[in-house]
Amino acid sequence: MPFPSVFRSESGPTTDTQDERQRLLPQENDVFAGYSATGGNWGASSERDFASGTNPGGGFTSSGDNAASSSQGGARYDPLPPQYTPGPMDGYQASPMFDGQIPNVETGSPTQRSRKLPVVSQAGWFIFVFMLGGLIAWVAQDMRVMSVLNPSAIERRRLGWDRDYTKHLTQVSVMQNITANWAHQIEQHAAALESMRQERAGWDKERAHQIEEHAAALEAIRQERAEWEKERAHQIKEHVEAMRQERAEWDKERAQWQAERREHERLQEEQMKLDLEKRRRELEKQKDDERKKKAGLRWQDPQPDEHCLRFGTRRYTAKLENLPEGYNGMKACQETQAWINGRWVTPTQCDDGGVWSGVHGTWIVDWEEGPCHSYFQDFNDKGCTAAGSGKRRIESQIKNIQSGDDGLKMCASTPADFHGLHFDAPHSCEYWTLYGIWGLWFVDDGACA
Question: Using CA atoms, how far apart are residues 284 and 287, in angstroms rounded to an integer?
Fold first, then answer.
C-alpha cells in the first residue's frame, strides 16, 4: 500500500543539512539573545567579552568551526580565567596570633608588613587561584554541556535523529518492497484463481457433455436390452414348445419301446422256460445216469441266507453228500446240480473243507426271490442341480428293505421307471438318518441349460 508523501526516499533527506540544522535549532529571540546557529563569530573578542562579562545579553555565539570542535570529545567553550597577579592586600589586618612578619619573596627578608601576615608564598596563591578558576570553569563547562540548548547536545540529538530517520527510511523501503511483493503475489493469486475458474468451467462443461453421452449410451443399452429380452422370451417360448413336442414324441416312442421290451422279455422268458424244461429233462436223464455211477451223489437241501445279497438276489449254500472215497470232490461239486426255486443249477462257488467238513457249494440265486424285490415310489422333482448344468435332480425313497439287509447295496441294484424313463439302478444312493435310504437320479433336461 502507498505511504504518505512526507516519508523520504531511500537516498536520504532532500533538504540541505545546514537548512535542516537551522530548522531544528532555536533562532535568535528575546530569550536567548546573541545565539545563532549559523551566524556570528567565536573569536577573541567573544572570549574577551565572555571573560570580562561585558556581553550585554549574557549569551554566546557559535560558528560552524566551533560547533564542529565542540562535537569532538568535549571541546571547551569557556575561556580561561584572567591571569592572576598578586598585589598588596589592602585593608588586611594581621591576626593577633602572628607576629606580622611575612618574608619578602624577592629578598627573603621580613618586612614591616610581612611581620604581621602568615607565611604564604606568591606561587601558592597563584596555584590556589588557578585551581579555583579551573574548578569554576569545569563546573561552568559541564553546566553548559548539560544545557538543553548546548550546541554540542543539539548536534548529538540531531545526529541521533538522523540515524533514527535513516533507519526509519530503511524500514519504510523494506515495507514498500514487502508491499510490492504482496501486491505481486496477490496479482499472481488472482491470475491463478481466474485460471482455475476457467479450467473448472471447462471441466464442468466437459463433464456435462460426458454425462449426456453416458445417459444416451445407457438409454441405447436399455433399448437394446429390452429388444434382447423380448427376443429371448420369444426364443424361450419356441424352445419350450419344441421341447414339449419332442418330449411327447419321446414319451410315445418310449412307451412303445417299453411295450415291445416287455413283450420281448415275456417271449424270452417263455423260451427260457422251454429251454430250461428241455435242459432239465436232459439233466435229469444225465443225472440218473450219473447217479448210477456215483452211487447216489447229491446235495443236501440248499439253505438260503437270512438276508438278501442285492435286489432280487439271495445266496444259498449246501453240503455235498454220498461222495465216493477217492472221488474228486471239487469236480463232483462243480458237476452236481441242485434244485433251487424251480431250476437245476450248479454251484457258483465250491469249497473243500477236508475230511471232517466236506465239500460245500454256494449259489447266487437272482430269480424267484420276492422278499428281495425292493422298489422306489413317489419320485420327487428337486429342480435343476445348478444354473446351466442341464441336469434335473430326482429323488425317491427305497421300499421293501428287510431287517438286516444291506440297504445301500439293495438301493444300488434296484431298477426304477419314471417319467417314461427306465434306469437299472440309481445314479447314487444316500442314507439319511431320519429319512432312511434314498435313490438319486440326474436326468438330462434342456430347461436347466
Answer: 5
Is the model's pLDDT at 268 over the cut of 80? Answer: yes
Nearest CA to 400 out of 434, 429, 425, 377 is that of 377
Exposure b/e, 363-390, CB count within 10 A at least 16 = b: bebeeebeebebebeeeeeeebeeeeee
Q: Which string of b and e fits 5-30 if b means at least 16 CB within 10 Å?
A: eeebeeeeeeeeeeeebeeebeebee
Contact between 374 and 410 (Cβ < 8 Å): yes
Nearest to 415 by CA among 245, 265, 303: 265
Judge contact between 271 and 263, C-beta under 8 A: no
Whether 77 shows a pLDDT value over 70: the answer reads no
Query: Is 214 a residue whose pLDDT tops 90?
Result: yes
3-state secondary structure at position 152: helix
In angstroms, the CA 332 to CA 318 distance is 13
The pLDDT value recorded for residue 67 is 36
How far does the chain reach from its first CA to its final CA, in angstroms? Answer: 83
| Residue 224 pLDDT class (50, 70, 90 cuts) | very high
User: Which class for 413: exposed (0-12), middle (13-18), buried (19 or more C-beta within 10 A)?
Assistant: buried
The grid cell for 185 is 503475489
Q: Choose the most confident range, by mean pLDDT, from 2-16, 268-282, 289-303.
A: 268-282
Q: Which of 367, 425, 362 is nearest to 396 (CA)?
A: 425
Mean pLDDT for the stretch of residues 272-288: 83
Q: Which of helix, strand or coil describes residue 422? A: strand
In tens, the pLDDT along 393-443 reads: 999 999 998 888 898 999 999 999 998 999 999 999 999 888 899 999 999
Closest CA to 319 of 306, 338, 340, 305: 338
